[in-house]
TrEMBL record:
It comes from the Bacteria. SUPFAM superfamilies: Nucleotide-diphospho-sugar transferases. Gene3D superfamilies: Spore Coat Polysaccharide Biosynthesis Protein SpsA, Chain A. CDD domains: Beta4Glucosyltransferase. Residues 6-93 form the Glycosyltransferase 2-like domain. InterPro entries: Glyco_trans_2-like, Nucleotide-diphossugar_trans. Belongs to the glycosyltransferase 2 family. WaaE/KdtX subfamily. This is Glycosyltransferase.
Length: 270
C-alpha cells in the first residue's frame, strides 16, 4: 500500500545508515533527501535504491543549519502528509502498521516516540521510550524555525495527538569518545542559539539542570531498564545539560572580565 506521505531526510556522509532508513519508508509515496555535500558512498546508495523503485527526490543544498536545512526539505514535499525522519532512524513495524489510520484522522499532526540503540545492550525496550516528538504533519500545517541551530522542532497550527504505539528506531552506535565530542558540539550550538535569542545565562541551572536531565532520562524515560548502558546514556544527557549552561555562563563572564594577563608586578601575594 502506498500512502500519501512525503518522508524527508537531511544528510551528509550517511553511507552507514541511510539505506535501512529508506527501506523502512517503503509505504511513502515520496522520499525527499536533501544532501549537504556527501563525499562517501551516500549518492551511490541513493542511486541504487532509486533504480529499485524507491520514490527518492534528491536535492543538493549547502548547509543552512539544522532548522534551515529541514525547512528547505519540508518545502520540497508534495504529498498531503509529511514525515520528518533522520538517516539513522527507522520506522518501527508498529508505527508503519498504524500510519494508514493515523493520516485519516482530522488532526494537524502526530507525535511519535523514539527508541535508542545502546552500545552493549541493543534497542531499549518499549517501556524505555524517549519523549514524544512531533514528526508527522499535514503539508502546510507547520514549519521549522531556520534560526534553530540544533534540536530543531516543528511548529504546527492545529490539534496534535500522540501516536498510540510504535515509533522510530534510532541506530547510531558510536564509541563514548565520539559521543562526548558530539555532546560538546551540540551544547555549543545550543548555547550560541540561546545567546542569539537574547536569553541571559542562569548560573543556578549548572547545578540543577544536569540532575533534572539525568532523573528524567533514567527514571521517567525508563533507561534504568537498560542496565549500565542506560546509566551511561542518562549521564551523557546530564553532561550535555551541564556543558550547555556552563558555556552560556562562560560567554557572559568573558564579556564582563576579558582574559587579559594581569600586571606581574602586582602578583606578589602568590
Amino acid at each position: 500500500m502506498t500512502l500519501p506521505i512525503s518522508a524527508f531526510i537531511i544528510c551528509q556522509d550517511e553511507e552507514r545508515f541511510i539505506e535501512p532508513c529508506i527501506r523502512s519508508l517503503h509505504m511513502c509515496a515520496e522520499i525527499v533527501v536533501v544532501d549537504s555535500g556527501s563525499t562517501d558512498e551516500t549518492f551511490d546508495i541513493l542511486d541504487r535504491l532509486t533504480a529499485e523503485g524507491f520514490p527518492i527526490k534528491l536535492f543538493r543544498e549547502a548547509w543552512r543549519g539544522y532548522g534551515g536545512q529541514k525547512q528547505f526539505a519540508l518545502e520540497q514535499c508534495t504529498q498531503p502528509w509529511c514525515l520528518s525522519i533522520d538517516s539513522d532512524e527507522r520506522l518501527s513495524p508498529l508505527i508503519a502498521q498504524d500510519l494508514p489510520g493515523l493520516i485519516t484522522q482530522d488532526v494537524a499532526g502526530w507525535r511519535i516516540t523514539r527508541y535508542p540503540y545502546l552500545d552493549g545492550f541493543g534497542y531499549a525496550p518499549p517501556q524505555a521510550k524517549e519523549r514524544m516528538n512531533l514528526r508527522i504533519i499535514r503539508n502546510g500545517a507547520g514549519h521549522f524555525d531556520p534560526k534553530d541551530k540544533v534540536h530543531e522542532g516543528l511548529y504546527v497550527t492545529g490539534e496534535v495527538k500522540n501516536a498510540p504505539r510504535g515509533g522510530l528506531l534510532h541506530f547510531r552506535p558510536i564509541h563514548l569518545h565520539e559521543q562526548f565530542l558530539k555532546e560538546n558540539k551540540y551544547s555549543s550550538l545550543k548555547a550560541q542559539m540561546k545567546v542569539t535569542q537574547g536569553k541571559r545565562a542562569q548560573p543556578w541551572k549548572m547545578a540543577v539542570s544536569p540532575w533534572i536531565y539525568f532523573l528524567r532520562l533514567y527514571f521517567h524515560n525508563g533507561l534504568w531498564r537498560c542496565g549500565w548502558a542506560g546509566f551511561i546514556r542518562a549521564m551523557l544527557g546530564a553532561t550535555y545539560a551541564f556543558m550547555t549552561e556552563a558555556k552560556r555562563w562562560e560567554h557572559e563572564a568573558i564579556q564582563a572580565v576579558p582574559p587579559v594577563e594581569p600586571d606581574f608586578s602586582k602578583l606578589d601575594r602568590y
